[in-house]
TrEMBL record:
Residues 130-168 are annotated as: Disordered. This is Peptidoglycan binding-like domain-containing protein. Signal peptide: none annotated. Residues 241-297 form the Peptidoglycan binding-like domain. It holds the Pfam family PG_binding_1. InterPro entries: Peptidoglycan-bd-like (IPR002477), PGBD-like_sf (IPR036365), PGBDSf (IPR036366).
Amino acid sequence: MPHEDQFTATGPSFTGAGFPRAGFSTHSTDTVYGVNAVGTFCGVYGESLAPGDESDRQAARDLIGVVGEGNTYGVFGRGRTLAGVVGFGRRGDSGGVFGVSMSSAPGVVGQSRIDFRFALPTGDSATDGGSAIGVLGESGSGTGVSGESSQGAGVSGNSTSGHGGEFSSDQAAQIHLAPSRLTASPPDTGQAGDLLAIQRGAFATLWFCVLPQADDRPAVWGKVHLDRPSVPSPTLEQGAQGQDVKNAQGLLAAHGHDPGPIDGVFGPQTDAATRSFQEEADIVVDGQIGPQTWNALLNQF
């Protein structure tokens, strides 16, 4: 039905357009958009029904650009040179692509494949897999990929010949473990190979599960004993400067003894904080940070 802007197609599905029966179809190659639709509830709503299925003809949620529902694929996109599907969220708390699973299947599946099957790809990665990246997450200053779980794994990686997970960074740590605030010890649960950081006051301790829990026993955890940082400088005292002083100042502050500005300069306030800490740790009070004081700073927490 033509009008001053473009045209509106209405009516039942028809034959003779060069396609199977369709509500709307076109062979046009000179149009800018295959479909250009704006709606107050949903821009485009498409549904695929098997014979005998019923539909309420209403999107699950409002204010959605495209909703697709189908027994196999809700939305299928194939890009010849770029992406098959591109999602962009304008608000800071929204997502470009949002995947939800109502069953045990993943909400979002990304694979690099040579072939593509109509069903959800589950082929042997050794014979069917492509050479690119299954899921790529990039961020300028935020998080590339974030995974959360209340029961299972937030992020799971598996490989038959390479790395299950690989991390790199030129400016920060390759991996960050957010310390758990368990107050006394690791939990009774755990799987062999689990790694756990526990917050102890201002410090974090690292634990490794060596034996999983069973019906008749809790999991067995071992504390990962870390060497203290290498301290190439001699014993520190008032007047010293450098990174070693800065490390000591940070440790003093973590123990609740204010060394003043953490600037790598061993001044009177750092000397006073050192003596205060030595008295609390019940070691020789001399204002010098030698082997005994380093040991106390790094292990008494």
